[in-house]
Amino acid sequence: MNEIKQLQSEVTGETGVLVPPYVCVRAHTRVSTGKPVTSVTQPVDIDSPLIIALDLGTSLGWAIRLSGQAMSGTEHFKVGRFEGGGMRYLRFVRWLDDLWRFAGPPSTLYFEEVRRHRGVDAAHVYGGFLAQLTAWCERHAVPYQGVPVGTIKKFATGKGNADKAAMIEAAKRLGHEPADDNEADALALLHWAITQEQARV
To answer: With a threshold of 0.85, does the pTM exceed it?
Structure first.
């Protein structure tokens, strides 16, 4: 996100023209990967409000609908060898603030609601991210909703117990090229949220 903001500032400074964020995402992705963007942006509804979808964890999958585009990626909040465990949460909150400055206030934020974890450490880490996220949403008056994992998987694949490979394939069928299962989960959640909003109209 910081690299995208820097790129937007540099391009705007050189041309004097405000560059839409999704253009900078395209350019940043091309520079980072050497390939044109196929999964980071996808036409949606240009008049739709901003939606954020998150797959919480140390490797955090994210997807947003912004300016008629769906953007996605994975952010890593690993703790360094000589850092305390709380550093991942400080970086996460800073990342949320950067996302707000980059995209603006979201209409709704959705997150993957995990009820079962592989171990105690995983449960503690997830709980830390969830606490930081809900506090951040309350502080900024952002409506938020947890969506059960099984609901997301069933929406994307037809099976509530789909594995990682199936979720990645489902994201590809939706027109994306996710880098990993975290990004795929966030994309599935975003499309679920869009479908729910369309059903309420």
So the answer is: no
Higher pLDDT among residues 90 and 45, named by residue: 90
Alpha-helical regions (H) of the chain: 2-15, 21-33, 87-103, 120-140, 149-157, 164-173, 181-200
One of 3.30.70.20, 3.30.470.20, 3.40.50.300, 3.30.420.10 is the CATH number of 42-200, namely 3.30.420.10
pLDDT, one tens digit per residue, over 119-129 is 688 888 899 99
Which residue do the tokens 């350019």 mark?
27
Q: What is the DSSP string of 130-148?
A: HHHHHHHHHHHT--EEEEE
The total number of residues written for the chain in this structure? 201
